[in-house]
Amino acid sequence: MASLFLCLPISLCTFLDVNKKGVLRFGRQILVAAIAAILIWTLIAMLFEEKFIYFPTRYPGGLYEESRFIPDVVDCWITTEDSVRIHAWFAPSDSAIATLVMSHGNAGNISHRIDIIRRLQSSGFNVLMFDYRGYGRSEGSPSESGIYKDGRATFDYARSLRGVDTNKIIVWGTSLGGAVAVDVATQRRPAGMILESTFSSAADVAKVAYPFLPVHLVIQTRLNSFDKIPDVHIPILCMHGDRDSIIPFELGKKLHERANPPKEFYTIRGADHNDTYIVGGKEYIQTVKEFVGRVVRGKPSKP
User: Fold this and answer.
1) Quick one: which of 35, 37, 49 has its CA closest to 218?
2) What is this structure's pTM?
């Protein structure tokens, strides 16, 4: 009997030792699996990087039949510096305040932006909005260098349009288009720039979208407006919804803070990513008109 009690501590120690080794082995397996998963998903993000960035809808997909509701809209075909033919719409306005050259976001095509084109046109602006290569009726496939070329070609085309005052051209970039507008502003000389719901860099967006993956360290796409915007010396209006669920409000502020004056920041209260002009309503349009009015009159922006 005594020998039985003497053996119990030894048996218990053996059990605990075996159990501890099992727990450690299981922990190591979990760690290895987690590291493997991180590496695999990071590799997937690298291999299919452009698929995670560009979501084009090619013609005839979209709402092209609705273009009849844009008064006097003109189909434009623009050839880029690398001989890619891209499509744009020009919506003229009588006695226009200015011409807006608009770069849209990463999804759909220009036919999904008919409502905002009409609102801006009816507010007194010429509007020239283009589709990136691979979007809508434009040729080719999207890439970072390619969409920059598309932006520059469209700006140059705007200068050739009849009825456009070349001293009153404003580049406007929404979301992905913000990176395009900033790049254009470093290569050309627009009168001013409007940045809407955009971001500082692709790496900063990747940190938010993939917080547990080191994607921001390995992606090749830069879209680095943060480094470019110090080279822009024109009036800038930044607009961002404070409930943006796709591009964090803080990234819009970060880019604005990096920009040179004169500059303004308009917080669109209650707006998400794609409803800024709807939620902003009359205040949104009025903010744009006042900013552009000051730019074309040569007056400084509000502090």
Assistant:
1) 49
2) 0.85
